[in-house]
Specification:
three-stranded mixed beta sheet, 15 strands, globular
Length: 448
């Protein structure tokens, strides 16, 4: 097929900088997962005779940025239907006296393990191992410290514990069409398409890029722990090849290793069909994006569109022309730390403000959670009427961009719980996104 589908034998030798980067990150991961793999046989079998629980796993630095909102979420949750696990990356042994969020709801602290930027698969394994010790935990949900709940507990529990208790939900990225990352980004930018792309499966169809924030059924959670080391070995071969024009790894282990471990489990058990998609079906893996995350140009042309317009983007590029030049021509340019990355705000999008209508667009659909929300956001109230984004010259001229003279705002933590009660659960269930971009858009609801 296209260049992106060439085999590993046809690719160039990985850059020395990339090799060093990958080895450093995976050294951290392997040191973390090794003791849990060794103890995997001690994981108790599921106790199906007792009431099953939904396990919430929070990966935080220290605190939950939306602690009061999560307290409101668990306030309505029946005791015995959930469990909470929290890993605090800042809670090193020297800082073990840190306050544990949600402690009054029975939250348990996961013993500290080492984490680093782009080295988070290890902490996923550590937290899964801790949660698997409870034989009544049946579903495991990963959440970040900037995540907010878009539905109430009753909805989340119904969907995960009653509708599909034995399946896992994974949000896959669409495959890249080019071999080189810069060429792919330029293509997607030119067509205003989502930049979150999968460069891995071109080298191995069993290493697929997905969003970190997935939901696992118990049997899958256990397999991730059991096959964690094998998954890292398989993933390394693809990671070190993907994005040959970069001096760092494209993506991170937490965006592929969990699913790689599940596919490896079938091969070890001799149950693999040899076809990745058939194996995902055999495993009981569903393509379902339960956590809203917006990457640049994702959702273009839908009511979740956040594009700023071609003229605005051109203005940002012009004001950061040095960064643009270095991005295109400097091999060692660190885009993640650049000013242009911050100003474009789409890698992924960080919400420092939001309108009522946009928030409602998230809430009424199949998403259960949304992340990257700044603490203390005040929601601009606009009656929820949907206003199509204004792009191009109209945006440049200011048409449609002025706010009403008196703009009202309401705290997110008071508005969201009211929205929870207004959700049409049956409609939301059908408005599920398979990918966090236009290709995964839900089909129109069937008319009765």
């Amino acid at each position: 097929m296209r260049e992106a589908l060439q085999s590993t034998e046809d690719t160039e030798t990985p850059r020395k900088g990339k090799v060093k980067y990958v080895e450093e990150k995976l050294k951290i991961e392997r040191e973390v997962v090794a003791p849990f793999v060794a103890k995997a046989k001690t994981i108790p079998a599921a106790d199906t005779s007792a009431k099953q629980k939904l396990a919430f796993i929070f990966l935080t630095m220290r605190e939950l940025q939306w602690h009061s909102l999560w307290e409101r979420f668990f306030q309505d949750a029946p005791v015995g239907e959930y469990s909470i696990y929290i890993h605090q990356a800042s809670a090193t042994p020297a800082k073990s006296n840190m306050t544990l969020p949600l402690h009054r709801f029975g939250a348990l602290q996961v013993p500290w393990v080492r984490t680093a930027w782009c080295a988070l698969f290890g902490v996923e394994v550590a937290t899964l191992f801790a949660a698997l010790k409870d034989p009544t935990n049946a579903q495991f949900v990963f959440l970040s410290d900037s995540t907010v709940p878009l539905k109430n507990f009753a909805y989340v529990h119904q969907e995960l514990m009653q509708v599909a208790p034995s399946s896992s939900k994974v949000c896959l990225a669409e495959p890249a069409t080019f071999h080189y990352v810069k060429a792919e980004v330029l293509k997607q930018e030119a067509s205003r398409s989502c930049v979150f792309r999968d460069f891995y499966r071109a080298y191995n169809p069993r290493t697929m890029k997905h969003h970190q924030w997935l939901t696992l059924a118990r049997r899958h959670a256990e397999q991730v722990v059991v096959h964690a080391e094998a998954a890292l070995d398989i993933y390394q071969a693809s990671w070190i090849q993907a994005g040959p024009d970069l001096d760092v790894g494209e993506g991170c282990s937490d965006e592929s290793a969990p699913l790689t471990a599940l596919l490896a489990s079938l091969q070890v058990e001799g149950k693999s069909s040899g076809n990745t998609w058939t194996d995902l079906t055999r495993l009981g893996i569903e393509q379902d994006c339960l956590t809203y995350v917006r990457w640049r140009n994702c959702f273009s042309g839908t009511e979740l569109d956040l594009n700023s317009g071609a003229v605005a983007d051109f203005s940002t590029a012009l004001s950061n022309i040095g960064d643009v030049r270095d991005l295109l021509f400097q091999d060692n340019f660190d885009f993640l730390k650049s000013n242009i990355k911050r100003e474009l705000n789409g890698f992924p999008h960080y919400f420092s403000n939001i309108t009522e209508s946009y928030l409602w667009s998230m809430v009424k659909q199949g998403f259960m959670f949304a992340r990257k929300f700044a603490p203390g956001i005040q929601v601009q109230m606009n009656g929820r009427e949907h206003v199509e984004p204004v792009h191009g010259w109209l945006n440049f001229l200011g048409v449609g961009s002025s706010e009403p003279k008196s703009v009202k705002h309401e705290p997110l933590e008071t508005l969201l719980p009211r929205m929870w009660s207004e959700i049409n659960a049956s409609e939301a269930r059908q408005l599920s996104w398979r990918h966090l971009e236009v290709s995964g858009k839900p089909l129109p609801l069937e008319k009765p």
